[in-house]
From TrEMBL, chains A, B:
<dbReference type="GO" id="GO:0016813">
    <property type="term" value="F:hydrolase activity, acting on carbon-nitrogen (but not peptide) bonds, in linear amidines"/>
</dbReference>
<dbReference type="GO" id="GO:0046872">
    <property type="term" value="F:metal ion binding"/>
</dbReference>
<feature type="domain" description="Peptidase M20 dimerisation">
    <location>
        <begin position="206"/>
        <end position="308"/>
    </location>
</feature>
<dbReference type="InterPro" id="IPR036264">
    <property type="entry name" value="Bact_exopeptidase_dim_dom"/>
</dbReference>
<dbReference type="Pfam" id="PF01546">
    <property type="entry name" value="Peptidase_M20"/>
</dbReference>
<comment type="similarity">
    <text>Belongs to the peptidase M20 family.</text>
</comment>
<protein>
    <submittedName>
        <fullName>Zn-dependent hydrolase</fullName>
    </submittedName>
</protein>
<feature type="binding site">
    <location>
        <position position="90"/>
    </location>
    <ligand>
        <name>Zn(2+) 1</name>
    </ligand>
</feature>
<feature type="binding site">
    <location>
        <position position="186"/>
    </location>
    <ligand>
        <name>Zn(2+) 1</name>
    </ligand>
</feature>
<feature type="binding site">
    <location>
        <position position="125"/>
    </location>
    <ligand>
        <name>Zn(2+) 2</name>
    </ligand>
</feature>
<dbReference type="InterPro" id="IPR010158">
    <property type="entry name" value="Amidase_Cbmase"/>
</dbReference>
<dbReference type="Pfam" id="PF07687">
    <property type="entry name" value="M20_dimer"/>
</dbReference>
<feature type="binding site">
    <location>
        <position position="79"/>
    </location>
    <ligand>
        <name>Zn(2+) 1</name>
    </ligand>
</feature>
<dbReference type="InterPro" id="IPR011650">
    <property type="entry name" value="Peptidase_M20_dimer"/>
</dbReference>
<dbReference type="InterPro" id="IPR002933">
    <property type="entry name" value="Peptidase_M20"/>
</dbReference>
<keyword id="KW-0479">Metal-binding</keyword>
<keyword id="KW-0862">Zinc</keyword>
Amino acid sequence: KINQQRIWDSLMTLGQIGGTEEGGCCRLALTELDRQARDTFINWCKDAGCEISIDQIGNIFARRPGTNPDAAAITTGSHLDTQPTGGKFDGIYGCLAGLEVIRTLNDHNIQTFRPVEVSVWTNEEGSRFAPAMIASGVFCGEFDIDYGLSRADSEGVTIGEALKQIGYDGAEPVGQRDIHRFFELHIEQGPVLEQEKLDIGIVTGVLGMRWYDLVIKGTSAHAGPTPMAYRQDALYASACMIKELFELAHSNEEGNTRSTFGCLDVIQPSRNVIPGEVRLTVDLRHSDLDGLQSLEQKAREIIAAIAEQSGTTAELNCIWDSPPTAFAPECIEAVGNAVKDTGLSYCELVSGAGHDAVYLSRKVPTSMIFVPSVGGISHNEAEWSTIEQIGAGTQVLFNVMQTQANI
Amino acid sequence: KINQQRIWDSLMTLGQIGGTEEGGCCRLALTELDRQARDTFINWCKDAGCEISIDQIGNIFARRPGTNPDAAAITTGSHLDTQPTGGKFDGIYGCLAGLEVIRTLNDHNIQTFRPVEVSVWTNEEGSRFAPAMIASGVFCGEFDIDYGLSRADSEGVTIGEALKQIGYDGAEPVGQRDIHRFFELHIEQGPVLEQEKLDIGIVTGVLGMRWYDLVIKGTSAHAGPTPMAYRQDALYASACMIKELFELAHSNEEGNTRSTFGCLDVIQPSRNVIPGEVRLTVDLRHSDLDGLQSLEQKAREIIAAIAEQSGTTAELNCIWDSPPTAFAPECIEAVGNAVKDTGLSYCELVSGAGHDAVYLSRKVPTSMIFVPSVGGISHNEAEWSTIEQIGAGTQVLFNVMQTQANI
Ligand SMILES: NC(=O)NCCC(=O)O
Ligand SMILES: NC(=O)NCCC(=O)O
């Protein structure tokens, strides 16, 4: 029913905004490129007859009215921002699939009881502004609006300022829209569906994740005359921590244990200076709360022991805590029924990545649909899914949305 | 004979140009601050009656004529640039001690047979522009002038451009001055003299050192859905290399084995992205050539093995090779005689840091004098030597220079 070529073409067109030589996309949240992508998306939604609203944290809602003006909406959506080394699919797919649902309803002149809405959530990636999923978090009451607007990027520009700069500081109070159920379609960003040769993932939940800032302080000193035994090398200490925490997670992948150091800055680096201070970011994940808690506990012990041995000090500061999420059984079941109608192959799985659906699920019944990622690769310019995979996921989303919009 | 308070005051005054809150100095080569320090130094030398010359790579020579206008000069000097986390003594001391020698000769109306010169060498630290000691290297024929002028900082600004910006692109061809012998006075930058409770180090040579750029390439991927076993994490691989090379040097400090990673950049970092590329700098040192060669060989083996195990690639590229230096016996002896005259305590030692004297020694008989560094600390804002230590070293330099200027 949906038009596979049409959503594919829309994806490829939007991917040109911030498109990289390697075929990926670098379009950080609330940059000029993000503005262009948002404008394009809104124009397409208007062409499809939608009413557009923008809230005070820049979330976009495109609404196709239902026959009952008072009914809460069936909403889908994701994000348009990307990682620095991002692809064309992560997030964008979920927004454009929502638009494809509306275009398909229009093609067939289908009326729905409930309004159908597509949402674009600001700064999902957490790359320019930490934490991730911040604007869906504000929408759902996890963060208050002042916290959201005041988060700053590495240059000190806040979300509030950046919204004004690109003209997306909307008027609508955040979190006031009436959503009946929320469904998010996304690429898997991992290897499971491809390995199992399955078309669709019915997502039952999301790993718990915690983000930390880690500051290691040693003593800067001269690379030549300072004997190795005298050194308090903050980079050596950091290296020992990275290695040990990687191997801890590697040796116990039960519960999807994950440990990632994404950013590392040597403060005032120089080739012939033993680093005196290093700042890192840490990302720990686990499928259950006890597991996540004990992973953090072990990380703290490892970090303290290495700091002690290396004559450095270490400060680990949690800046974001997103507990493991279980999606609503009725929404999981609805996706399951929609898949069965199509004859596509499927399995249930847990998402290793955070999504706006995590925060939405705290406010309204929510679940997610995954399609395979080629090679399991994401947050990489080589991120890819085939046109058939993109089409299949969109069809499942259409089926769920249409059914749910009439209940 | 020399005026201890006068050189101390000059040091403290010059240290205010780029002075930091922590009491250190951040005055990178050929910046506006470096210009101010150079201007101040030149004004003081002019006040002391010196003739000033500036060569095409910005080296400064302040000359006090001798009674024989044709005699080659006795030259001393060091550098005015600092590390980002530098102190007030490293380099600056050697320049101002040279000026103090001239001021003292003036005080006592002493004529010398040979001219006495003080030199300031451009970009000794190697922090803004790699490699270190570049302008003394050009002076002595180690590098050609085009290589020197074309070295670029991390923003792409070349030495040639930076010299023009601060007005220190002099007219004199580089390397044409007639130097009879060169003596450099410096702080030790290491712990030996302090530990041995000695006043003066008679420096017999300098460790061999090699600088490398190391590029590790893995695959950027999502921190959540990517199982640990699938990762090709360039930062994890880097961490293993840093740890193993640190411990290799630590377990064998014979020959003053040193291994330092001063800079590390994650390319396009993001908290939830497994690093796909990391660029590091490596500094290896050893007191003899075979030892340095075998250290590099082991480093190559370790790096290759870790790259293989971690599914990454590693490219180690040597950008600077300064072999171990042995100073001229006649100059070492001259310093030894000068120390004995003073009654100060002393020992012979080898420098772990490179100095302009390394390159000067390839062209003219050269040696160095060290004074203690409090706590052995340098390339750190806490770098310190006492007024008495500063005075003692200057007196030894004066004695050597005066004697040598009359031979
Ligand atoms: N989908 C996605 O990449 N989300 C970013 C949040 C996370 O780090 O999992
Ligand atoms: N003296 C000094 O800090 N020189 C810099 C060159 C080196 O790295 O040893």
